[in-house]
TrEMBL record:
CDD domains: MltG_like (cd08010). It is a single-pass membrane protein. Belongs to the transglycosylase MltG family. The chain crosses the membrane at residues 27-50. It comes from Oceanobacillus halophilus. The lineage of its organism: Bacteria, Bacillati, Bacillota, Bacilli, Bacillales. Functions as a peptidoglycan terminase that cleaves nascent peptidoglycan strands endolytically to terminate their elongation. This is Endolytic murein transglycosylase. It catalyses: a peptidoglycan chain = a peptidoglycan chain with N-acetyl-1,6-anhydromuramyl-[peptide] at the reducing end + a peptidoglycan chain with N-acetylglucosamine at the non-reducing end. It is found in: Cell membrane. InterPro entries: MLTG-like.
Length: 371
């Protein structure tokens, strides 16, 4: 009996040890899987963070930040300066990136950077010593001007001629290249009836130039980049409105020409939407002036009868393309118009706008304010 008991006890010990070993294996397996999972999640998170850190801090920003890089600054010092000034997201990753890409020979000096700049643009400026603090030329392009007027402004302020500028912006082969590079541009601007392909797309702003004779293509692309930055945040809303970017920019140019402040723009955008919904002609005088090709102090019947895809006295809907550049305020008005019941409006001699819901009310306003 003693031997039987010993055998039974030995067997029980083996079973217990087997169960204990099985539990240990399960625990080890769970721990290993947990570690692997942590490593995978950590790797993905690390990759996403590094990817984010290498992208512009704020691609839509047009803020300009003055930065001084002292003489003898190390890459660590430069990285810390850029991070502290809100130019890059992470100084350590910036240092790792420039070391990995063997970037060096950064120059001391005063720089103007922007959170919208890529790592390559930042390192390129630092490496080439492109100090942007003292532009040779500073040119302001107003809101609501045509591409012809833009050419005149640049010809006055830069060592280029109006003819040189217009030749570049009307070069169809160059325009095709730009369409491939800028999402805001589409084949709609290549229509043979379009007067100027880039009309409306060269954004109103103040531009700094650092070369003795700025390259015209560089000027054009800088302005397109600015338009791209302004329009990009509205992409989803434009898609929901079932309009193309070209139509929205065209619409914004009409609002820009008819109004001078935010409230007016939102109201007029509301009026235009109402007329479009009713199937009415927009009948906005600035489109007539653009079709005629000259400034009109008074829009006469002979002007409104001009046969042109820009003349909203003759065509239903929006004109074939923009009639000027636009402000972000006008773009915002097109995207968020006032909810009004008006179908008509007119300007008096003091710059005020008077609205009407019916043609009868509109005619009374004409008699009252247009004497």
């Amino acid at each position: 009996m003693s031997k039987e008991k010993n055998k039974s006890k030995f067997k029980d010990n083996l079973i217990a040890r087997g169960e204990e070993a099985s539990k240990v294996r399960k625990i080890v397996t769970v721990i290993i899987l947990a570690i692997v999972l942590i490593l995978v999640i950590g790797g993905i998170s690390g990759y996403m963070y590094i990817k984010s850190a290498l992208q512009p801090l704020d691609s839509s920003s047009d803020e300009e930040i003055q930065v001084e890089i002292p003489l003898g600054s190390s890459t660590s010092t430069i990285a810390n300066i850029l991070e502290e000034n809100g130019i890059i997201k992470n100084g350590f990753i910036f240092r790792f990136y420039i070391k990995l890409n063997n970037e060096s020979d950064f120059q001391a000096g005063e720089y103007t950077f922007s959170p919208s700049m890529s790592i390559d643009e930042i390192t390129g400026n630092l490496k080439t010593g492109k100090v942007m603090n003292d532009p040779l030329y500073k040119v302001t392009i107003p809101e609501g001007v045509t591409i012809d007027q833009i050419a005149e402004i640049y010809a006055e302020d830069l060592p280029i001629t109006k003819e040189e500028f217009l030749e570049v912006v009307n070069d169809k082969e160059y325009i095709k290249e730009l369409i491939d590079r800028f999402p805001i541009l589409s084949d709609a601007i290549l229509d043979d009836n379009i007067i100027a392909p880039l009309e409306g797309y060269l954004f109103a702003a103040t531009y700094d130039f650092f070369e003795e004779k700025p390259n015209i293509k560089s000027i054009v692309e800088t302005m397109l980049n600015q338009t791209q930055k302004v329009v990009t945040p509205y992409y989803d809303q434009i898609e929901n409105e079932d309009m193309s970017i070209h139509e929205v920019i065209t619409f914004a140019s009409l609002v820009e020409e008819e109004a001078r402040n935010e409230k007016q723009r939102k109201n007029i955008a509301g009026v235009f939407y109402n007329r479009l919904e009713e199937g009415m002609l927009l009948q906005t005088d600035p489109t007539v002036a653009y079709a005629v090709g000259e400034h009109l102090e008074t829009t006469l019947d002979k002007h409104t009868e001009v046969d042109s895809p820009y003349n909203t006295y003759q065509i239903v809907g929006l004109p074939i393309g923009p009639i000027s550049n636009f402000s972000e305020s006008s773009l915002d008005a097109v995207m968020s118009p006032s909810d009004v019941d008006f179908l008509y409006f007119l300007h008096d001699s003091d710059g005020n706008i008077h609205y009407a819901e019916t043609n009868e009310e509109h005619n009374k306003n004409r008699e009252k304010y247009l004497k």
